[in-house]
Amino acid sequence: MALAFITGGGTGLGAEMARCAQAQGWDVAILDLCRDAARPILDELPDVRFFEGDVAREDTVVSALDGLGAVPDLLVNNAGILKFGSLLETSFDEFARILNVNLTGAVNVSRLVAARMIARGHGSIVNITSTAGIATSPGVNAYAGAKRGLAAMTEMMAQEWGPLGVRVNSVAPGMIQGGMSRSIYADRAVADRRASAVPSRRLGAEADIANAVLWLASEEASYINGHELVVDGGLTKATMSMIPRD
């Protein structure tokens, strides 16, 4: 059975990825900061293995990988944090913390897992980026830079590790009714207003992202490498449709 290793898999998008991966026959392990927060998904999916650790710390990641007893066939770098606020009002420490989790942490885990995948001869890595790094907006501060940086690192990893048997791609979620955005869309009026701006006329679901990730990891996508798959209902391509013609 193929093994999927999902960071930030205890809640939100990561938990949905664990749920969908297991339904498709994957053996699933997750790495997250807090077992208590992950309790609902662990109770729901008792076969999922849990490792407590910080993606930005090499020692906790190595400990988890050693504990797996096997090399992951799929790594999903999903762990992330977001804090809204203007750049001028964001402290340096907070800015650095957001970068550390969303960018440095993903690169840290990727390097450690890729080394094992390369020694084994194959593997797939999917990084979770964001449309906030493609068409950013005021108030997302370090998150936008981290996600754009992770997209660039995805391309570089694909070039370096592709010849060694490891494919690296990314998925950029748009406006998703779940994950870190769940509280935003709890207000139905906000959710409806935002959905009306999406060409598909709906917000995304957590399963939309999970399914995209698992497809990229599948043999059906075996010739896709270094690609950022935007899953946003067409939103980032809709700029001109929002500008009046007369």
UniProtKB/TrEMBL annotation:
Keywords from UniProt, A to Z, are: Oxidoreductase
The GO molecular function terms of this record are: androstan-3-alpha,17-beta-diol dehydrogenase (NAD+) activity
- Per the record, the domain of life is Bacteria
Q: InterPro entries in the record, alphabetically?
A: NAD(P)-bd_dom_sf, Sc_DH/Rdtase_CS, SDR_fam
EC no. given is 1.1.1.53
Q: Which protein family is named in the record?
A: Belongs to the short-chain dehydrogenases/reductases (SDR) family.
What is the protein name given in its UniProt record? 3-alpha-(Or 20-beta)-hydroxysteroid dehydrogenase
Which organism does this record belong to? Answer: Palleronia abyssalis
